């Protein structure tokens, strides 16, 4: 008898229709709003897909060997997923992240055995990325670089996109995703647009001044090289207040407990859906809400 290993459980996450929340936002009854629950992956987020893809493919090419040390700058979910995948494959993991991000994410990385280096809040993810490059140059490890690694969007081209197409039976009209490294929106959009070029691809970014974990608007010099603006029809900008309130409503009204980037993406999806009849709008719920309990998003 052959049994599954942990790596076989990544992907094929549920795609669920929201029942009550769309009507509260004024979405026509003929339009369906669906959420893909990526928190059901084994390390708890959509980043399980690219983390496993980047490590397995690098190992297959001989770029990394058992016992090697990997270095990655992360805001949380990619780091947790890479720490899990590294533990599975006998690799050492150094993760660099801004100091102000939630303690739950730090604790999760440490549970998988990763070494964590915190950088000052003021230098943000850009500073964390710079430090990772410096450490690689000093010979302290190898960077997979989720921001430029084609194995990141490839995971979504081979997994997330086909799953959405299958589970909507090809009826999807709009795909909405928050943008960080942009791997999810790039890989998924490539697959969906190959099936139906009329599918609308909407990227979600934070409004000026908003601090939404997992959603970023990069300065030009730090823009991920995997990003191709030609595959995004529209950018939606979400305030911190809207992202947080939608996250709370999802839990209270639908029983869907997710993180703030998921609330931000869903807020944008609901705004899009309000103006559509007979549409099928799919949004990505990147992770679970228990990863943010210490932030005060969900008051006791």
UniProtKB/TrEMBL annotation:
It holds the Pfam family PALP. It is an enzyme of class 2 (transferase). The gene is cysM. The lineage of its organism: Bacteria, Pseudomonadati, Pseudomonadota, Betaproteobacteria, Neisseriales. Keywords: Amino-acid biosynthesis, Cysteine biosynthesis, Pyridoxal phosphate, Transferase. NCBIfam families: cysKM (TIGR01136), cysM (TIGR01138), PRK11761.1 (NF008735). Residues 7-287 form the Tryptophan synthase beta chain-like PALP domain. Belongs to the cysteine synthase/cystathionine beta-synthase family. The keyword Zinc-finger does not apply. Its EC number is 2.5.1.47. InterPro entries: Cys_synth, Cys_Synth/Cystath_Beta-Synth, CysM, P-phosphate_BS, TrpB-like_PALP, TrpB-like_PALP_sf. It catalyses: O-acetyl-L-serine + hydrogen sulfide = L-cysteine + acetate. This is Cysteine synthase. Its cofactor is pyridoxal 5'-phosphate. It comes from Leeia speluncae. GO terms for molecular function: cysteine synthase activity. Pathway: Amino-acid biosynthesis; L-cysteine biosynthesis; L-cysteine from L-serine: step 2/2.
């Amino acid at each position: 008898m052959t049994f599954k290993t942990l790596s076989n459980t990544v992907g094929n996450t549920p795609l669920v229709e929201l029942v009550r929340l769309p009507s509260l936002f004024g979405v026509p009854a003929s339009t369906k709003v669906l959420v893909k629950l990526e928190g059901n992956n084994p390390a708890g987020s959509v980043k399980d897909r690219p983390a496993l893809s980047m490590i397995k493919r690098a190992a297959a090419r001989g770029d990394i060997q058992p016992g090697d040390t990997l270095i990655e700058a992360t805001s949380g979910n990619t780091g947790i997923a890479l720490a899990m995948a590294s533990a599975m494959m006998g690799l050492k993991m150094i993760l660099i992240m801004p100091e102000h991000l939630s303690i739950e994410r730090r604790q999760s990385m440490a549970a998988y055995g990763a070494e964590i280096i915190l950088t000052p809040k003021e230098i943000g993810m850009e500073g964390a990325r710079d430090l990772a490059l410096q450490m690689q140059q000093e010979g302290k490890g190898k960077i997979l670089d989720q921001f430029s690694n084609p194995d990141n969007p490839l995971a979504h081209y081979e997994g997330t996109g086909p799953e959405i197409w299958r589970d909507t039976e090809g009826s999807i009209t709009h795909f909405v995703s928050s943008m960080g490294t942009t791997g999810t929106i790039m890989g998924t959009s490539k697959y969906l647009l190959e099936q139906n070029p009329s599918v609308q691809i909407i990227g979600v970014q934070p409004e000026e001044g908003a601090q939404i974990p997992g959603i970023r608007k990069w300065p030009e010099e730090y823009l991920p090289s995997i990003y191709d603006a030609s595959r995004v029809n529209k950018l939606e900008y979400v305030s911190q207040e809207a992202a947080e309130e939608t996250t709370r409503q999802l839990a209270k009204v639908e029983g869907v407990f997710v993180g703030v980037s998921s609330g931000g993406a869903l807020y944008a999806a609901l705004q899009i859906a309000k103006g559509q009849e007979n549409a099928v709008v799919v949004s990505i719920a990147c992770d679970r809400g228990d990863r943010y309990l210490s932030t005060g998003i969900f008051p006791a």
